[in-house]
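To: structure subgroup
Subject: Chain for Friday's discussion

All,

I'm putting the inputs and outputs inline so they're searchable in the archive.
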Amino acid sequence: MQCDIIRLYHRDFSKYAVGKEPALWEIYDAVPSELEEKNKRFFLSHIAGKTNFDRVKDKFLWLSDAGVVHPVYNITEPKAPLKINEKRNLFKLFLSDTGLLTSYYSDSVRLGILSNDSSFNNGGLYENVVVQELCANGYSDLWYYNNKVLGELDFVIEQDNNVLPIEVKSGKNYFLHSALNNVLSVNDYHINEAIVLNNGNLRVDGKIIYMPIYMLIFFKRNPSGEIKYHLDLDVI
């Protein structure tokens, strides 16, 4: 069924993007392997050699506008407003449907995911789940941060003009997050809170909320643009 859906996507590319379809297929089909890269950034050179990004960016925008992929752009620093710190030529690219992402995996990998086999690296899969859920809850703009000194934040979003970093941990050592610690220690960023999504239990430690990944359903963005979420820890 999932493979049939992807074939239908390819057919639609040919129908609605005449002349662009080979590049669209190549980009879309490259997403799963790009998410296996260390920092999950989409490298244009992996599909188009040394082509200038400006020459192919319309293909990425077409896929994004069609709703089949979602880009997460790099920011130069985690300070609001994040939009003005955006670098659109550096980005991660995720599929809008995590189920379709898993259809690119081998049977053994899918079985390992279902059986919670810790030998598999599920980082890219988990991040795709996070992107899909955040987008479904109204977050149309997502970013990530990468700095040679401070490290990398998986995701950064805005919450009522405040910056909220989100780290995604698929393994057991989710308390280890040096990049997040480094960023929180920079007073000039004025970050009051951060989220670490994981497979453990809900816990608060200073500025950091450790949250089971399924609790993303409580993140909602209302139509006015104001983001509201509340965690009632008294019921735990």
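Points worth raising on Friday:
The radius of gyration is 18 Å.
Residues 2-16 form the longest helix (15 residues).

D.
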